[in-house]
Amino acid sequence: MLSFVKHEFMLKENEKVKIIIYGTGKRAGLALDILRGKYSEQEIVGFTNSCNNSDNQKIFGKKVYNFSEIVSLYRGEEYYYISPAEPTRSEIQVILEEKGIDRTHILNYEEVEENCIGCEDLDDLMVVGDDALYFCCSMPGQNIAPSITYRESIYETVDAFLNEKNDIIRQLKQSSGPCYGCVKTVRGGIRKSKKTIDRLSIGLSYPCQLACSYCTWHCNSRNIKKYGDKQVKKAYQIDVKGLIQYLEQKEVFSDTGTIFIASGEITISAKRDELLDAVGNHPLCVMSNGIVFNKRIAQKVARMDGSHIEVSIDAGTRETYKNVKGLDAFEKVKETLHLYKQEGANIYLKYIMLDINCTDNDIQGFCGIIKSIGPQNISISFDYNCGQNISQNVLRGIAKLSKEINKLGLACIINPAIGKKNIEEINRCIDLK
Ligand code: SF4
Ligand code: SF4
Fold first, then answer.
1. How many CA atoms lie within 13 A of 363 on its CB side?
2. Is 369's C-beta closer than 6 angstroms to any atom of ligand 2?
3. Exposed/middle/buried for 114, CB within 10 Å: 0-12, 13-18, 19+?
């Protein structure tokens, strides 16, 4: 017997169904892992999205179908799981219903307050920073994250955050408040069923050995050398363990809520083990520079619940790595990635394309790493400090890298925050012979 999320809908005993994941973006792998754990008896056929996909495109080893192909193959008997977060999840839900898919065939169907304006971050995210709890990550030139500065105790701060969240949602309904006018708001972005935290992102200034050219964190080796470790000490004061326990106790952070560790470098943090203890059974996503291997992290990110480690390599040669990252650690990172692979860790590789790492040599070198590691996910991003003002060289580099990745029979995600105009230019470069 199988009970489905939200509907508590039951399949007939021993009934076997086909499940399709809608969405091929960053959360597609997470969705696949969740389904494999939750519906292990059922067949997860592959992925679909709103694009025209080429015949042989695959992600996570499964085919990406055109939606029309799915419909003609399974004729409405199939079930869907929508992978993107709100508000895209709700938009896809509406699209599927408009295409005649019964809502009982949408495994993660949820009712949404249709006439209300919201945003996916406001809906389910809490970001733990050095000075405050934030409702999202600010995007330079686009928005400023609303926040609650730390109070006497972490408990008071959490209570104030949850009250403020309700207040902001209420104000948005009246077209006012700190989120009103933000580019990320859309109609229908607030779920009726659960006003909880589903994503907890730890973004504290734990120290990092690197000094990436694009990094503005207080905690990179360049800034620690220049300004001292005052900010690192501040980050160490934040009681993340107490915060997680309090959220759980208040029942606003469910067991399936994901913890993201994007703090400087967790593998060398004095708070590493305390934080890993606090993570418990929550799905865990670790952003690491990949220099130091940690067995506990490897074991945690090997679980099939969306957990993974993400390493942004940003180079395909030793020289470029040193140039971009400020340390001669290219070979060490490759070695560490192999150790994570041996432990069965889910590995996500990332490439931040810059003017100094977009040569053919780098692109080929990075593709070589992809071949030897076999990551579950590959993404290409850009330097946020440039806003959407990206050079032609970088756009061409992104196009070239994504083309090379496709030649390996793999898909990659280009960070949509790069903007529509830049995406169009990348697509134009991809189409050039
Ligand atoms: S609406 Fe904008 S400012 Fe408000 S939480 Fe969402 S992304 Fe942040
Ligand atoms: S690895 Fe991350 S924290 Fe370290 S310098 Fe690079 S961007 Fe900054």
1. 22
2. no
3. exposed
What number does CATH give the domain 18-105?
3.40.50.720
Domain ranges of the chain: 18-105, 119-282, 314-433
Atom of ligand 1 nearest to the CA of 146: 3
| Residue 176 structure tokens | 């006012």
Residue 405, helix vs strand vs coil: helix
- Each residue of 118-162: pLDDT tens digit? 788 888 899 999 999 999 988 777 788 999 999 999 999 999 999
Report if pTM > 0.85.
no
Residue 49 corresponds to which tokens in the numbers above? Answer: 């999205």
In this structure, the dihedral spanned by the alpha carbons of residues 181, 108, 193 and 6, taken in order and rounded to 10 degrees, is: 180
Q: Which of 414, 429, 425, 411 is nearest to 61 (CA)?
A: 411
State the distance from the centre of ligand 1 to the C-alpha of 178, rounded, in angstroms. Answer: 8
Nearest alpha carbon to residue 147 among 159, 123, 129, 169: 129
229/322 Cα distance (integer angstroms): 23
**416-428 confidence digits (pLDDT tens):** 888 889 999 998 9
CA atoms within 13 A on the CB side of 343: 21
- Phi and psi of 15, rounded to 5°? -70, 135
370: tokens are 């992809």
